[in-house]
Design brief:
About 65% of the residues lie in helices and about 0% in strands. The protein is mainly alpha-helical. Among the domains are: about 80 residues, no CATH class; about 90 residues, Alpha Horseshoe (Serine Threonine Protein Phosphatase 5, Tetratricopeptide repeat), CATH 1.25.40.
C-alpha cells in the first residue's frame, strides 16, 4: 500500500496547481513582500524620512520622545533607538535638537520640544505598534490567512494530506481565537467608557472559552471593572483565581505583582 500511495502522490504533484501566491504585507503604508523579523533587525527604511511641516526626521522625533522619558540616563535608552533609528551616539545626535531649541544642553526637553512631541504623537503611537495601523494589521491578518488556506489546499493536492489538514485545523482555531479577541476589545472599549456592567457581560463568558489565550489582560480588565463598580470582594476573587489557576501557566513571577497590588488595594478599601 505504501508504494501505491507514493505513486499516487507522485502523479498528484505532477498535476497540482501552482504554488499559492502570498500578497505583500502592509506596514507604514508600504507593501513588503516578506514581513519578517530582519526588517526590525536594522535601521527602518523610513527612519530618515522628514516629517511634513517640520525639520525633523522620524528618527529625530523618536529620539526626542526618548529624551523626554529618560533625559541623560543613556543606560535606560532602548536598544531599538540605535538598531531601528540609527541613533548610535546620543551626544552627537542631540546637537540638532538643541539647535532647533527642542532640547537643552543638559538633555531636558523644552516646552517647544514637548509641544512637538504632542503634535506628532501619531508617529510615536505607530512606533509603539510596530508601524502598522489597526487597518493594516487586519489586512495583513486576512492576507496571511488567505495564503495559509490556499497553501493547505495545495498541500492536500500534492499529497501532503496530513500537513495540509493540520494547517487548515490551525486556521480554524486561530479564527475562533480572533473572534474571542474581538469580543475582548469591545469589552475594553465599554470599560474605558465606564460601562463596567456591560463590559463584564461580554468578558465573563470568555473565562470559560477554550480558544482564549490572552488570560492575563482578560482577568485584569474584569478586575478593573469590579473596581469601577466598587465591588472589591469580586475584584479580590477574580485576582485570586488568576493567581491560583492561571499565573502558573505563565511561569516565573509574571503578572504576580499586578494582581497582588490589586488585592492589597481592594482589601484596604473593604476595611
Amino acid at each position: 500500500m505504501g508504494i501505491i500511495k507514493n505513486i499516487h502522490n507522485f502523479f498528484l504533484k505532477k498535476t497540482s496547481s501552482p504554488f499559492p501566491h502570498q500578497q505583500p504585507y502592509l506596514i507604514f503604508g508600504k507593501e513588503l513582500k516578506e514581513m519578517d523579523s530582519p526588517l526590525f533587525d536594522d535601521v527602518l527604511p523610513w527612519a530618515g524620512e522628514l516629517i511634513p511641516g517640520i525639520k525633523l526626521t522620524i528618527s529625530d522625533l523618536i529620539f526626542l520622545w526618548v529624551i523626554s522619558r529618560f533625559g541623560s540616563d543613556f543606560n535606560s535608552y532602548p536598544i531599538h533607538l540605535s538598531r531601528n533609528y540609527g541613533i548610535t551616539s546620543p551626544i552627537d545626535s542631540v546637537k540638532k535638537l538643541i539647535n532647533l531649541q527642542l532640547v537643552s544642553e543638559d538633555f531636558i526637553v523644552t516646552k517647544l520640544g514637548t509641544d512637538t512631541i504632542n503634535k506628532h504623537r501619531n508617529y510615536i503611537e505607530l512606533h509603539k505598534n510596530g508601524w502598522t495601523t489597526d487597518e493594516e494589521k487586519q489586512c495583513n491578518r486576512e492576507r496571511h490567512n488567505q495564503f495559509l488556506k490556499e497553501y493547505s489546499e495545495w498541500l492536500v493536492q500534492t499529497g501532503e494530506y496530513e500537513q495540509g489538514i493540520l494547517i487548515k485545523n490551525n486556521l480554524e482555531i486561530n479564527k475562533k481565537r480572533d473572534e474571542c479577541y474581538q469580543i475582548f476589545q469591545k469589552g475594553e472599549e465599554l470599560s474605558k467608557k465606564k460601562k463596567y456592567d456591560d463590559s463584564n457581560k461580554l468578558l465573563l463568558p470568555l473565562l470559560e472559552n477554550n480558544y482564549v489565550d490572552f488570560h492575563a489582560p482578560l482577568y485584569e480588565r474584569i478586575a478593573k471593572n469590579y473596581r469601577g463598580l466598587k465591588d472589591y470582594k469580586k475584584e479580590i476573587d477574580i485576582c485570586q483565581t488568576f493567581l491560583k489557576n492561571i499565573q502558573p501557566l505563565y511561569g516565573g513571577d509574571m503578572w504576580i505583582n499586578v494582581f497582588t497590588k490589586r488585592i492589597e488595594y481592594a482589601n484596604n478599601k473593604m476595611k
